[in-house]
Design brief:
The protein is an alpha+beta fold and 319 residues long. Helix content is 25%, strand content 30%. It has two domains: 246 residues, Glutaredoxin, CATH 3.40.30; 53 residues, no CATH class. Strands 1, 3, 9, 10 and 15 form a five-stranded antiparallel β-sheet that branches. A five-stranded antiparallel β-sheet has the order 4-2-16-11-14. A hairpin with a 3-residue loop joins strand 7 and strand 8. The longest helix is centred in the last third of the chain and has 21 residues. The N terminus is likely disordered.
């Protein structure tokens, strides 16, 4: 168990105004973000984001590239929207996969990559539906913003090397929980020369009440780190489709090794080679002797032919 370190009193809570709205399980009611570094900080310096876009992806998922491009465009189109990239695929060669990402994926009861979740309520599945991300955000009115309910969250943090300690206090008139997700920019994509931004590296999920906890910070490189505090409504999540584009194909939920790179056993390779060799000998049984038959030089062949003709003429004269 990770040791607990005291970080002092929790800072002044950040509030979300009360509204007469219906809440659905999983819905995001508050998003707070702030940069982190070696040292300490608290929620008084955090910024509130208008929307949260969560992209569930995997490095091995080819269709995810289109969805990643759609999410990346938000940085220039609406930079205030908070985007995070979660890699939940633990049982795969995705070196960026984390257990905290998997916990969020399972909480949403998702089943495929890429999956885009907006404000914990709207879902866009697959690379084709991802093109509706910007229209969906543009159509969300102020009544749909995820700052709803009388919810108070205060927190402070301390970071020393790879050890990160959180102290939080969450109160609300409705049942909610908070996820603290640490994302990183400039994360190296293993095996390539590319880097990825907003990749979730560590964190804690399903926290309530008031407490303190420490965990190991999983990071790679020196890219900027961001603490994302996400308050969600408790209960079994039921997402709503945010696109009218039909989903024609099944989404890849698990990784399978491509056939072109699957390894073959040495015995199979040896047996297969013998079979190919034997099959190749069948059409070559007449041509192989011809290929290796000794040939006389052209001049010698002409002398032999002339001599044969002369012998034949002599026989004819005698007759």
């Amino acid at each position: 168990m990770s040791p607990i370190f005291s970080v002092g009193l929790v800072s002044t809570p950040v509030s979300a105004e009360s509204q007469t709205v219906d809440f659905t399980p999983g819905e995001v009611v508050m998003v707070l973000t702030m940069p982190i570094f070696n040292g300490s900080g608290n929620s008084s310096d955090a910024e509130q984001a208008p929307h949260l876009v969560e992209l569930h992806t995997a490095t091995w998922c080819t269709p995810c590239r289109s969805a990643e491009d759609e999410v990346d465009e938000l940085d220039s189109w609406w930079p205030d929207v908070r985007t995070i990239s979660l890699h939940p695929s633990l049982d795969s060669p995705d070196e960026l996969a984390t257990s905290v990402s998997s916990e969020v994926y399972e909480k949403y009861n998702l089943s495929g990559y890429p999956s885009i979740i907006v404000d914990g309520h709207w879902t866009l599945l697959g690379d084709k539906q991802a093109t509706d991300l910007q229209p969906l955000l543009a159509n969300l009115s102020e009544d749909n913003l995820p700052r709803q309910g009388s919810t108070n969250l205060g927190f402070s943090w301390q970071m020393a090397g790879e050890n990160f300690t959180l102290n939080w206090n969450l109160t609300s008139q409705i049942e909610v929980y908070v996820d603290f997700l640490i994302s990183q920019d400039g994360v190296e994509w293993p095996g390539t020369s590319q880097t990825l931004d907003n990749v979730v590296r560590s964190g804690l999920t399903n926290l309530t009440g008031e407490s303190e906890q420490s965990f190991s910070l999983n990071q790679s490189g020196s890219g900027n780190l961001t603490l994302n505090a996400i308050v969600r409504v408790s209960g079994d999540v039921k997402l709503v489709g945010g696109s009218e584009i039909p989903l024609f194909t099944d989404l890849p939920d698990t990784w399978s090794e491509p056939e072109s790179v699957r390894s073959l056993s040495p015995k199979f390779i040896a047996a297969f080679s013998v079979i190919i060799f034997l099959l190749a000998l069948i059409p070559m049984r007449h041509t192989v002797p011809v290929l290796f038959r000794k040939h006389q030089p052209i001049g010698g062949q002409e002398q032999i032919s002339n001599q044969e003709l002369g012998d034949k003429s002599a026989v004819d004269e005698q007759e």
